[in-house]
Amino acid sequence: MKKPLSQVLIDSRESIGVRGRSSSISIEPIDDTQELTQLRQLYQLLIQPIAELLPRDANKKVIFIPHRSLTLVPFAALQDEHGQYLIERNTISIAPSIRSLSLTHQLKQRVQKRQNELDGFIKPALVVGNPTMPEFSSVQGQKPERLPSLLGAEQEAQAVASFFEVQALTGDKATLAEVNHLFTGVRLIHLATHGLLEVFSEDGPGAIALAPSSNNSGFMTTSDIQNTPEMAADLVVLSACDTARGQITGEGIIGLSRAFLTAGIPSVLVSLWAVNDVSTAELMIEFYRNMQERHLNKVQALRQAMLTTMQKYPKNPKKWAAFTLIGESE
Prior knowledge:
Blueprint: E1 20-21, H1 32-47, E2 61-64, H2 86-89, E3 91-94, H3 98-117, E4 126-131, E5 135-136, E6 145-146, H4 151-164, E7 169-171, H5 176-183, E8 188-192, E9 195-201, E10 204-209, E11 219-221, H6 222-226, E12 235-239, E13 246-249, E14 252-255, H7 256-262, E15 267-271, H8 277-292, H9 298-312, E16 323-327
Parallel strand pairs: 1-9, 2-3, 4-7, 4-8, 8-12, 12-15
Antiparallel strand pairs: 5-6, 9-10, 10-11, 13-14, 15-16
């Protein structure tokens, strides 16, 4: 049965080097030709009718508020009849709803106040990469298996940590208890690991894989996130698979991105599909280089990182277009 275009059949589900498993909400692989055809069709449906209204200055931001299944659309990768991707023309961010625009602005002001209160004690970043992986089974009754290690995520974490002159948490050190301990006293949170949709809590689907410990299986769930004491971070980057996905509602998606917004984070960078370990590391390093060295804001830094990574994978948007910024762009 053919899936609707709004489901965006981009995910290749490579068998190795992928930062997550989400078999319960899987997407069938397609070849590059089909992929580009669908991106052009989506452009004609969603962008062409408003193309003349979009800013001609590529640095001016366009905010999309997608409805229901349109939240799965990679707007950056939509392609016009000339083969130009939308991200080449516009700077793009996402908002779950009209109401959320005001909410995330309020969250930004609250976070800035919190950061000022912690001035002198707050650290620049918490960076996690390739923790010792927990065991997991997506099939009830099946013996759990250890999630595969992610070398690219560890290298990414080390590189990101160097931008902020902090020590990355990797391996056995990246436990839920340690991450929770550091959550409330940092300006930025970067988690490079596996993302899973099959793990459910009372607050919705989604979990981030961390190192197991004596009193925790190694998964940070949406409930864990929402129950975190007041955080001071103005950006959380979930450099993992499917972290933008979850239960689709009229007010956006209930999942990991919503959990961090609910916890008071004004900006969340998340992925729409199962991302490749190597190309994700390349994109993320460029993203932070743009912010730290070029002093671009979050959404501009993401756009430039996409454009740089695109040069290496010009006909393969699944390697560079997965990540989307939800919330405040500056």
